[in-house]
Amino acid sequence: MKESAMSVSSLVGAIDDIARCSSVLAEGIEGEFIKFVAQQEECRKKWLGAENEAIRLKQDIAKITAENEALEVKLKHARSQVEIEIKKRMKAEAAQDHMISQCHPDDRSSPRKRIASQDRIGQARRDKKHAFCSKTVIKPETCQPCNRRIKFGKLALKCKDCRAVCHPDCKDHLPLPCVPTKDTPGSAGKRARDENIEFYAPTTSPMVPEIVVKCIDEVERRGLSEVGIYRVPGAERSVRELKEKLLLGKIPDLRQVSDIHVVCGLLKDFLRNLAEPLLTYELWSKFVDAANKTDEDDSASATYQAVSELPQANRDTLAFLVVHLQKVSHCTECKMSASNLAKVFGPTIVGNSSTNLEPMQLLQEAKWQPKVVERLLSMPLDYWNQFISSDEENLRSPPFNPATHLKDGTPITPECTPVPASMLGPLTSGSHTVKKKGSFLSRTPLTPRFGSKSKHPSKRPTHFFASPMLK
């Protein structure tokens, strides 16, 4: 009886559960589903808003980045302008001192006046105070009186003569007198040279400065196996020390420089700080237009024409450098292709069209610089070798164009065939063939003028027979 009563009760409970569940299923879940859909719609709207906000923030970041780059270019340009103005001022002061010494020679020759002048100078130096100028700190520096770091963006005072840096509140604690250092513009003004490449180049062909030759020779001697040559920067302090020796007129011994990247940095710094880029401001637009031409033949022809118009020192130095860079680009160990070298040497060789440009113009011209260098590196090796060859037989002015002339200078006819040889054969003088060396613009001498009284005619071959000599 008990077991039957328990089974009946369990059946009744199961029936009650089934009835309760059936009532729930009968009621439906439309309300809950509608609430779920509303929550999903709200989440979708928030998600869409977050995506729009992310897009807006990315646009703001891109805009701020562009403005930052423009400001950095403008700051770099302003610094270069300040350096140029300082150099010009130093040159003007040196010229003024020279004129004063020329106008008053007795002041130098009189011992009494010279001693009195020295006494006045010594007293002025003993009483000399610091000449401060305010600056915003870009690179963190140390305040000399309190020995604390001056952080980025903070205002600091810097002495124009001794280059001492301090906080504005610490200026009264700097020691007196103000002793100019060796690296001040006043003392280095006589060493600083605002000159172009012709100032450093020799007077004979090839007109390549000695420092360029030595740097390139050293790089080719032990740098062609270095990965990232010219891309990896050298130590700034070492480069600055080598540059100081160069400004003093002493060519440093580059074999003693352990880091080859320092030698590369010296070469780039030398070319970058010239008064005018290698391609010159006057011909800058011609090189850029030639590099931007879509037709390969037109681009090459325009580049040949622009190179032929360069001054000889610029042209010879450019040829020497391009031949070296072509050799570097062919070295697989360096992993420096022509495009990589063009990006490195674009600002150095090409530079800008002018010294006074707006930031956006600087950014635009920076895009064209690698194209010009790539075009120069794509030109034939024989074309560049004619400028740096010491063999006078290979010197021609204007230089031959591979598109219109052969390697020996012979022009090509419009049918792209060489000019036919003479039926009489080559003109010979003895056992040597007389070679044509170009037009009257060439560097080979012409025949002596008729009536010359010189008893020592030129021994070099001439275009014509020697004229008679008058006694």
Automatic annotation (TrEMBL):
Domain of life per record: Eukaryota
Domain Rho-GAP: 195-384
Key word Nucleotidyltransferase present: no
Gene Ontology cellular component terms for the protein in this record: centralspindlin complex; cleavage furrow; midbody; nucleus; spindle midzone
InterPro entries given in the database record: C1-like_sf, PKC_DAG/PE, Rho_GTPase_activation_prot, RhoGAP_dom
Keywords: Coiled coil, Developmental protein, Differentiation, GTPase activation, Metal-binding, Spermatogenesis, Zinc, Zinc-finger
Chain spans, region Disordered: 95-123, 441-471
GO biological process: cell differentiation; mitotic cytokinesis; mitotic spindle midzone assembly; Rho protein signal transduction; spermatogenesis
Basic residues composition-biased segments: 452-462
Residue span(s) of domain Phorbol-ester/DAG-type: 129-178
Protein name as annotated: Rac GTPase-activating protein 1
Organism of derivation: Acropora cervicornis (Staghorn coral)
